[in-house]
Design a protein that fits this description.
Belongs to the glycosyl hydrolase 3 family. α4 crosses α5, α13 crosses α19 and α15 crosses α19. A hairpin with a 2-residue loop joins β18 and β19. The two termini are 40 Å apart. The chain is an alpha/beta fold and 862 residues long. The longest helix is centred in the first third of the chain and has 21 residues. Helix content is 23%, strand content 24%. It is globular and about 85 Å long. Strands 12, 13, 14, 16, 18, 19 and 21 form a 7-stranded antiparallel β-sheet that branches. It contains 20 helices and 37 strands.
Length: 862
């Protein structure tokens, strides 16, 4: 029968028929990306796919091109739940279907506790209410499309270094009010079909084996019927995880839950058959939901495809533009109007202008089905306005951490972009000697090659891969610097000369999910007009290092990366940008970070921009006051030059439509309406968790407690560079007439309606995010954050001179705190302050009113 028939399965009956071995098999994955099926009972296997800003499919290596959406911080910056729900339904769910995946491993809704966190870009916000409401919209959209979500990383995975071992030590109040709250809101409003546990411990116990979080909170208090799966390799025991309620161990590679070990655990009474079948039942329930939701996936051919319709492209461009935040716009420098402003020459500078900065790194990374760079997008938009406009370019200052990949610099013998990959088995599984005859040869169009488990069938346990291509000829003699990283070992040859040896001995590094080497570099002189031969030899066995002699076989995470760039003098590069700035009418500087700096696997060490970027911006803006700075990063960065520039736009990571969306905002085709989803501090020392962010002997102390993000800056009176919720427009808005209804308390809940009038007092159509913050009664015996976002709404496309009344609903969540002594939510009687405005900045919370609750109450659940 077709797999979709499982949509009508009687789950208790199926569970009853399961043998013990079949039940065991259902509790762990198969390979890297599938659950286990039971053909005898018609149970289909499910395919899962990363990730939060797109659907990669099952291959890191030569993956199927995909739609890459803006980073989660960018989605949060839209403050637009309707838009996020739309992209969940129309883009993400549909992309899952053409990628043949039933479960999307997303969204990530951890808290932006510290912008140094390597995966900060993957989470929506530093604020739990905004995070939870955006996450709920995301989940609802995807699941309404028939695809399961696996909301993650549940809970407290707020940094990357030591992520599988560190213990997130926090108070019950912080756990409940800050870190669990986004998941709680997603459960209340969207009911995710599955939850993915975090790698780390919380208050002493790994989450994957934490009954308090999985059983007591998720399944007990929140009444969730979701399946609970582990993060990949995030299981550390058999009995603890099984008994705590972890239903599914992922992946199936190198798993704990083998038939042998699970049966031995049953025989020793560490676990029972009954409990194993309970875990299997949750997997079956998830399978049934997927069969009911998108039967065409289970009945399909399993082939991954890509598709870009005009409607999809327009929607990706829309969400990217809606997320962009206009931080500063002195003298109305923006939008650019070349004819009105007399702009005849534009200088584009910066290391990110022509770079392929698509998303952060790790699970979120994918191969975009198309990409528009900031440079290309801006040039096209300017030329549309005035075909005679002169655009000049200088990199100015380099921003890459590792040498840029050579995807568009290498060609095969027949001229295709990329190179040829040839796979060689070894004499036997223990041998380091490659056989002379290859097992497979294939075309490869990428030079960052994370093979993962995508090696050919029939290859030996140890194997060698050779990559051959030619560099595109240069128009002049030049020195070229190559960079080589290996998760395994590798050598680079140019014209048969050894240029880099990362094979004999290597330095351990952080790349390829912590299994790669440091980047080794070598310089080779290129001759004008010569297509130099490039060959990389790679073996999936680590080389010894000074720190250890380990020669481990990389069986599930081998990879190699080749990058390179022409050698340049940093001073000359900067001087060229400054000279262009002096000669131009307007300068657009595009700078920031990329997936090397912000990635799964390790944390940043500084908020600073790379290399001499800060110097570039200061010098260029001094040379030309009409300088527009566009920053790209997934989380906050330091901007020591912020007071020196007249126009500043933050664009996050925007995916496929990057350049088009940036150009839309710069030229006024789109009036910006994005708001910062996290605070931008002036310096690292101002960050709430500074000094206790790192894992110290396996302990991460959440000493800032409730005062995360903007709550800290208000509580301590610290002025950030830009406040949470800040974002300008090309028009202006006036807030007036805040009204609060009388509170209605019924059945353990409270209902209050707030209304405010928004008027467009400017000259162009614009959209505005209305933000409402609550302050708990000062009569409380406890210390509370000075203000908390509890509601927001987006006014769309308001015409000049027009007004709109905005209603904001408040319920028990707006007035509650967690009372640790009684393990319950509490709403106190007393006077609550409500403030409404454009951002969390004190000067922008222009409207305020109070309401009185004459009687308090306690509540549990959701």
């Amino acid at each position: 029968m077709p797999p979709s028939d499982f949509a009508n399965a009687d789950i208790p009956e199926v569970v009853e028929q399961l043998t013990t071995d079949e039940a065991i098999l259902l509790t762990a994955g198969v390979g890297f990306w599938h659950t286990h099926g039971v053909p005898r009972l018609g149970v289909p296997a499910l395919k899962v796919s990363d990730g939060p800003n797109g659907v990669r499919g099952n291959h890191f290596f030569m993956s199927t091109p995909a739609k890459c959406l803006p980073s989660s911080t960018a989605m949060g910056a839209t403050f637009d739940t309707e838009l996020i729900e739309e992209i969940g339904l129309k883009l993400l769910a549909e992309e899952c279907k053409i990628k043949a995946a039933s479960i999307l491993l997303a969204p990530t809704c951890n808290i932006q506790r510290n912008p140094l966190g390597g995966r900060s870009f993957e989470s929506f916000s530093e604020d739990p209410h905004l995070s939870g409401m955006i996450a709920a919209a995301y989940v609802k959209g995807v699941q309404d499309g028939g695809i399961a979500t696996a909301i993650k990383h549940f809970v407290g995975n707020d940094k990357e270094n030591d992520r599988m071992a560190y213990d997130s030590i926090m108070s019950d109040r912080a756990l409940r009010e800050v870190y669990l709250m986004p998941f709680m809101l997603a459960q209340k409003y969207a009911k995710p079909w599955s939850f993915m546990t975090a790698y780390n411990r919380v208050n002493g116990t790994h989450v994957s084996e934490n009954p308090y979080i999985i059983q007591n909170i998720l399944r007990g208090e929140w009444a969730s019927d979701a399946a609970v799966m582990s993060d990949w390799f995030g299981v550390y025991s058999i009995d603890h995880a099984i008994n705590a309620g972890l239903d599914l161990e992922m992946p199936g590679t190198n798993k704990w839950r083998t038939l042998d070990l699970m049966n031995r655990s049953i025989q020793s009474r560490k676990i029972t058959v009954r409990t194993v079948k309970e875990r299997a039942r949750k997997v079956l329930e998830l399978t049934k939901r997927c069969a009911q939701g998108a039967s065409e996936v289970l009945d399909g051919d399993g082939v991954e495809r890509t598709n870009n319709s005009d409607v999809d492209i327009a929607l990706m461009r829309k969400v990217a533009a809606q997320s962009i935040v206009l931080l500063k716009n002195n003298n109305d420098l923006l939008p650019l109007k070349p004819k009105e402003q007399g702009i005849k020459k534009v200088a584009i500078v910066g290391g990110n202008a022509k770079a392929r900065v698509i998303s952060g790194g790790g699970s979120a990374a994918l191969k975009p089905s198309y990409f528009i760079s900031p440079y290309d997008g801006i040039v096209e938009a300017l030329k549309e306005i005035d075909s005679n406009i002169d655009v000049v370019y200088s990199e100015g200052a380099r921003t890459f951490r590792t040498m840029p990949t050579l995807d568009y610099d290498l060609v095969t013998e027949d001229g295709k972009p990329g190179w040829t990959c040839t796979w060689y088995p070894h004499e036997n599984d223990n041998s380091m000697i490659a056989l002379p005859d290859p097992i497979k040869s294939q075309y490869v169009d990428e030079t960052r090659i994370f093979i993962s488990t995508s090696y050919p069938e029939g290859i030996t346990y140890r194997w060698t891969m050779k990559l051959d291509g030619r560099l595109k000829p240069r128009d002049k003699d030049t020195l070229f610097e190559f960079g080589l990283i290996a998760s395994g070992r590798a050598k680079l040859f140019v014209d048969d000369q050894l240029v880099i040896d990362n094979w004999t001995k290597q330095r351990r590094g952080e790349y390829f999910f912590g299994s790669g080497s440091e980047e080794e570099k070598g310089i080779f002189p290129l001759k004008a007009g010569v297509a130099h031969k490039v060959r990389v030899e790679f073996c999936n066995v680590r080389a010894p290092a000074d720190t250890d002699l380990d020669e481990t076989v990389m069986d599930s995470n081998p990879g190699v990366q080749l990058g390179g760039a022409e050698v340049s003098d940093a001073g000359e590069l900067l001087d060229s940008a400054v000279q262009l700035a002096k000669e131009a009418d307007v300068v657009i500087a595009v700078v920031g970070l990329n997936a090397d700096w912000e990635t799964e696997g390790y944390d940043r060490t500084t908020l600073g921009l790379p290399g001499r970027t800060d110097e570039l911006i200061s010098k260029v803006s001094a040379a030309n006051p009409k300088t527009v700075v566009v920053t790209q990063s997934g989380s906050s960065i330091a901007m020591p030059w912020a007071d020196e520039v007249n126009a500043l736009v933050h664009s996050w990571y925007l995916g496929n439509a990057t350049g088009a969306a940036i150009a839309d905002v710069l030229t006024g085709k789109v009036n910006p309406s994005g708001k910062l989803s996290l605070t931008f501090p002036k310096k690292l020392e101002d960050v709430p968790s500074h000094g206790h962010f790192h894992s110290e002997h396996g302990k991460v102390r959440y000493a800032e407690d409730l005062f995360v993000g903007y709550k800290h800056y208000h509580h301590r009176g610290v002025e950030p560079q830009f406040h949470f919720g800040h974002g300008l427009s090309y028009t202006s808005f006036e807030y007036s007439n805040l009204k609060l209804s009388e509170p209605v308390v019924t059945g353990g809940d409270v209902s209050v309606s707030a209304s405010v009038i928004i008027t467009n007092t400017g000259a162009v159509v614009g959209s505005e995010v209305v933000q409402l913050y609550v302050t708990l009664p000062t009569t409380s015996e406890l210390t509370h954050p000075p203000l908390m976002l509890k509601a927001f709404a987006k006014v769309r496309d308001l015409s000049p001179g027009k007004s709109e009344s905005v209603s904001l609903a408040l319920d028990k969540y707006a007035f509650s705190y967690w009372e640790e002594r009684i393990s319950s939510w509490v709403v106190e009687k007393g006077e609550y302050l409500v403030r409404v405005g454009k951002s969390s900045a004190p000067g922008e919370l222009t409207l305020r009113s109070t309401l009185a609750l004459k009687k308090g109450f306690e509540w549990k659940g959701i």
